[in-house]
Amino acid sequence: MQLARSGSQACRPARRAAAAAPGRAAPPAAARRPGRRAVPVVRAELPAGGVGTAVAERPAPLEKAGESAVPEVPRGGDPWEDPKWQQYKWTVYRGTAYDLTSFIERHPAGSWLINLAIGRDCTALFESYHLRPEVAGARLARLPVLEGFPVDAVPRSPYPNDSEVYNAIRDRVRAEVFKGQDSKGAHRSGSEGAALAVLGYAAAAYALYVSAPSALTGALLGLGGAWIGLTIQHCGNHGAMSTNAAVNGLLGVCNDLIGGSSLMWRYHHQVSHHIHCNDDALDEDVFNAFPFLRFDARLPRAWYHRWQHIYMWATFPLLTLVFVFGDLQALFDNRTQGATLYGATAWERATVVLGKVAHFSLLLALPWALHGPGATLAGAAAYTAMQSVVLAATFAVSHNVPEAKPLDAGTPRSTLYDTELAARDWGVQQLVTSANWGGVVGNFFTGGLNLQVEHHLFPAISFMHYPAISKIVAEEAAKRGIPYAHYDTLPQIVARFVRYMKEVGVADQVPASGTAAAQLKRL
Prior knowledge:
Elements: H1 2-19, E1 41-45, E2 55-59, H2 83-86, E3 90-93, E4 96-99, H3 111-114, H4 123-129, H5 133-140, H6 164-177, H7 192-211, H8 215-230, H9 232-237, H10 245-257, H11 262-274, H12 284-287, H13 308-315, H14 319-333, H15 346-371, H16 373-397, H17 411-416, H18 426-432, E5 435-437, H19 440-446, H20 452-457, H21 466-480, E6 485-487, H22 490-506, H23 515-520
Parallel strand pairs: 5-6
Antiparallel strand pairs: 1-2, 3-4
Helix pairs in contact: 6-21, 7-8, 8-16, 10-15, 14-15, 15-16
Protein name: Cytochrome b5 heme-binding domain-containing protein
Keywords: Heme, Iron, Metal-binding, Oxidoreductase
Region (Disordered): 1-38, 54-80
């Protein structure tokens, strides 16, 4: 409990700033969503010491309505620290607070995914992960509503389903790519062969490494680790590698074996980066390398940043080590740099430590016992460097080129600089803050991360479908005059990334406002 309180206090400035955003007031209970069917409620007088003589209403679970007393839901209080709300695993969706407690273990995609929604506004997570919003919305509407919950204290999430372009693209994807079979899980199928190829190579590379550790075999293993990081752990943690939640969970845990943390990755990547892509205050990927690297002109500029396009290549081989120590720090802090671990279970937290033990046992302990320290340390160093460089270069290029950054006037600048968070078009933001490269071959080897635009629009779809989806996205963007960045090859986008890093390294700092300014003061 102490850890949760510490993390909550760390976020308080951002919460207050977001709470002041326009459009935050919760609608009356009777008018929240027209057309929503009536839900049974239990009325209970507030206990002594409550706020006035108000009445709290809470829906009874549909399956057991009337079978047992429903806990009272008092009005007011801090939703993270007040005991009145701590008894619930709450989330907020479009201005309404729900109790997820009874549904977590029944969530079709696994409890480890829905846990991300606990303690925050889950609207963007919910709407970007469900290809059939009418079905998912109907199930959500059956959950208990926490009347009197202080919704305005919770930072408002973007609303993807308010985006006209996102809705248009999603409708075409369902009709043209999946032809109605998404109801049977077609959107999470198709990557089984890729998973076998990745795991097969990684297993062969490890067998070679453990039988004869060296710089060469370590580098080959590092390629396997990077391939796991780009593909099966990435898509598994998104719930997109299989229709079976357990399979996705197991593939996601591969992140722990290669030196990362599946838990920390989900909070950092899905809660922070995916929802708020290239927002300098809310996207952890923008500021987590600062002050060593300046990825964005909204960050303060230091004299040495003018050389970052050169020295960054010396920092990239250290990425895996940064993950190792950063994951442990986040465990103690109860938050990554961009998201607090509100919904993390005790088992999920334990996997952070257990994963490090497993990783270093496989990388160091076993080959050390068989072959001694010299060959093992050389192989481990080569593994770490190779995996880190491949991951760093692949991740960095997708969001750090001029088309995806607001250095100059244009749609990215107007989207991220001139529009407050609550008023942004989420679909447009995903389109203009990412850049694609390559095609089908790159898609296979990167788990769809070369088609970053499509991945950000549809993180819960198997990457094997992204090439087909990319044609639809390009057409819909062109109809509306929305920029859609695509480079033919990886070398092309890497070269442009290097030039961008040089340009942003000398660019004047762009003043931030609102939530962004509050975040920058804490860097």
